[in-house]
Every structure is written in C-alpha cells, then in structure tokens.
From TrEMBL:
Source organism (scientific name): Streptomyces bambusae
Name of the protein: inositol-phosphate phosphatase
Catalytic activity field: a myo-inositol phosphate + H2O = myo-inositol + phosphate
Lineage top rank: taxon: Bacteria
InterPro entries, sorted: Inositol_monophosphatase-like, Inositol_monophosphatase_CS
SUPFAM superfamilies: Carbohydrate phosphatase (SSF56655)
C-alpha cells in the first residue's frame, strides 16, 4: 500500500503542506497577538496558535490521503507523550513539525519551515521541508534524490583544508553537559555557530552551504525530514557511538550530520574528544 502511495500520490502531500501553511501559518506571520503565543517548558520553548492549527490541519489531511496511517506531531506529543510510540509500530507514520523555528516565527524572521516526513518501521521514506516565507520547498524520496523547487541538489564535500562550518544545538536548549561536549568543536579549523531552524540547517547541508550539524536532542519531528534530505543529497550521519541515528529507537547522543562521510567522522571524533 505505501509503495503504491509513494509511486502515485506524492504531489497530494505537497498540496496539503502548502495549503496548511497558506491557511494556518502565513496569515499569522508578523500578525500574532500576545494571547496567541504560549510557553511550553520555559520562555524559550514557544508554541503559537499557528503551530497548533497547522498540525491539526496536517493531521486531518495526511491521514485522509493515506488511510491507516498515523501522525506523530510535536504538539500532539507535548499533549500526550505516548503518541511518540507510534514510531515503533507497524502503521505508516507521518512525522510533523508544523512550525520548525517557532522562535524565529514569533520574532518575524522568515527562517522557519514546516517539516513533514513519511516513515514506516523506522525507515524514512519521503520528506517535505517547506519554508513558505522564503518560497522554498525541499523534497526527498528514498532512492530518488533531493530537490528544491524541483531542481536536484547535491551536498558535495568541503574544500580541502577549508574551515569546517558546523551548526550546533543552540545553547538555549542544551544542558551544561551538552555544552561541554559541543565545546569540543571549539578547535582550530572548525567554525561552529548555534543553529536556527533545524529543518533549514539540514537544507543548508544538503545544498553544501553548511558542512555539518551536531545535535543533542532526538525529537523525530526536528530530524526525520532533514535526515532523508541530506542522505538523498549525498550526505551522511551517525551518533557518537558510530551508529546511524534512527527515529524508532533510543540513540547515543549527540549525533552528527555532514556533507560526506569524512566530515561526519571528523565531527564525531571531535565530539568524542578523540581528535
């Protein structure tokens, strides 16, 4: 069933993602009232009416497109952590981050996106990264390459000897231990900076605009779409344990994503304190 859907109906997913953004997100961009922004776990963990409405919109639309599928969305998991367990089940799973980069969205910065991925048995099969304010849609299907607005992209490799550009988990969202581990990237030859929207950072790696990423949290909605996009563009990823990061299991963190295997190994070794 899911193979037939992937072969026939991917354009309907793009339409659903674009419609959710057009109806629920963009009319509220730079128009949010104070009562439409709430805190979840703290002052830097924000949620807006756009996040909630867009996830509800996508949940209804995507499960209608693929009967028998389920949704693991950021806001649904916040309300009921048990929803996350669907990633280990048998049903096809839509993984949704309705507004990735809510902090940017609230601040009027266009660098936010909607992330949707389709997975089954832990394998990410297709992904959509839509930045409506930037008018960019990145798509990937397993084994079929990565595209932005219909044009194929490749991650390539860093220039030999060039400083490695790495986006790391933002200090607002990391523990002291995480900061210490990420601090191992503060070495000559590496230019590390805090990441913004995770989905757009993955897109930069897939395009070769960033060399690598280092993340310390496992939330599937932040990573699933980007992991497939980077893989289909020719990139690589692994955890500090040297294993692939998977959405359906516990992972040893942090994990690294890069334009190619040597870049990922270099970042992994630095995070281990081995280089």
């Amino acid at each position: 069933m899911i193979e037939d859907f992937l072969a026939r109906d991917l354009s309907t997913v793009e339409e659903a993602v674009r419609k959710a953004a057009a109806v629920e997100i963009m009319p509220r961009f730079r128009q949010l009232a104070e009562h439409e922004v709430d805190e979840k776990s703290g002052p830097h963990d924000l949620v807006t009416v756009a996040d909630r409405r867009a996830e509800e919109h996508l949940t209804a639309a995507l499960t209608r497109l693929l009967p028998g599928s389920v949704v693991v969305g950021e806001e649904a998991v916040h309300a009921d952590p048990g929803v996350y367990g669907a990633l280990r089940g048998d049903a096809p799973v839509w993984i949704v981050d309705p507004v990735d980069g809510t902090r940017q969205f609230v601040g009027g910065d266009p660098a936010f996106c909607t992330l949707v991925a389709l997975a089954q048995h832990g394998e990410i099969l297709a992904s959509w990264t839509y930045a409506p304010a930037l008018e960019e849609l990145a798509t990937a299907v397993r084994g079929q390459g990565a595209y932005v607005n219909g044009e194929a992209i490749r991650s390539g490799s860093p220039e030999p000897g060039a400083e490695l550009r790495v986006a790391i988990a933002h200090p607002l969202y990391t523990s002291e231990h995480d900061k210490q581990v990420l601090g191992r990237l503060d070495v000559p030859g590496v230019a590390a900076r805090p990441c913004g929207s995770a989905g757009l950072e993955y897109l930069k790696v897939a395009r070769g605009e960033m060399d690598a990423l280092a993340f310390t949290w496992p939330s599937a909605w932040d990573h699933a779409a980007g992991l497939l996009l980077v893989a289909e563009a020719g990139g690589a990823q692994c955890t500090v344990a040297g294993e692939p990061f998977r959405i359906d299991r516990d992972n040893t963190l942090p994990f690294a994503v890069g334009r190619d295997e040597p870049t990922v190994r270099r970042v992994r070794d630095l995070l281990r304190g081995e280089a």
